[in-house]
């Protein structure tokens, strides 16, 4: 098996996802497609070190991987049916799943490549259909455990190992391996087809795809310290950008990409040089990643072009407005309040409600914000264990001069704080 360094040198993230999607489109067997590509990569390491890489390395890898997969299909056909000649096999290769969907004849069938024609490197991968969206949707199938969906995307679409995923998402490697194994077996057992006739199903699953990508990012945001762990930018940011490219007319795909890019841009400013926690309001905008910020802004423009602003688009707009306020020293609090009101209508959440109370305090004063927080506590029992609510309550009580109550709220906030740097920051406010 090639190691991560070898694979990264040979095949890009785009290439990995495209090849896996093309091969798995035949029978929905993601694990089988991964094994076939791993075989091709092993052969590439040996052949290319001796002879040098071909002019079209991804075409070479795809053809070799497809041939390796065909060997498996032939073996399966031999065990389960009468002998088939090559022509019949080419027409049925990969259709061993009972629920295989038909492929639109207007599209090129990626399993119909003649394995004996020309040099493997002559194959133009770009001439074949890009089925990564179908692969993402397969990973988000409703019969796949929700906790496994983001893991499956990182593995199948990006080629990350279970160990890499475990490190990025702060999970035990054994847990990740077990979830991936079960999920891949489930996809294969379902016989999920990747064909064009299933497009409506794919579009219906887009929200699940988006939630899985955002979930992976949110976990990393929680556990990251000074900056994202190695590979994180190439994981959640890459997946969000890929989804926007594959679904250019979907406003929420662009909203997700905008939100993740803008959030990731602020990672370098979250900690000071000596590791101290820095809240958004105190961050130095010169430390934000300008490239990621620009990409996020462009995706937000696309949200409005698409004519649909959903949860992710609203959250991205809120983020950008906060960032603009820090840059200019003048925040448009009334506009932020309107955006939070819209967000509460589209996707109400505990975090969004607490954020709205903070914005209300800036518009109408700390007493109004505290009243909104009190009202929320009466309707949401979970608020008693929600750390951001206690941090906000401490801040508002401090502004109102209610020192004893502020001290009590601060103590509760500290009890709920798990990040040592953030705990030190809160302690220093006393």
From TrEMBL:
InterPro entries: DUF6596, RNA_pol_sigma70_r4_t2, RNA_pol_sigma_r2, RNA_pol_sigma_r3/r4-like, WH-like_DNA-bd_sf
Residue ranges of domain DUF6596 in the record: 205-302
SUPFAM superfamilies: Sigma2 domain of RNA polymerase sigma factors, Sigma3 and sigma4 domains of RNA polymerase sigma factors
Domain of life: Bacteria
Keywords: Sigma factor, Transcription, Transcription regulation
Domain annotation RNA polymerase sigma factor 70 region 4 type: ranges: 151-186
Region described as Disordered: spans on this chain: 96-120
Pfam families in UniProt: DUF6596, Sigma70_r4_2
Family per similarity comment: Belongs to the sigma-70 factor family. ECF subfamily.
Name recorded for this polypeptide: RNA polymerase
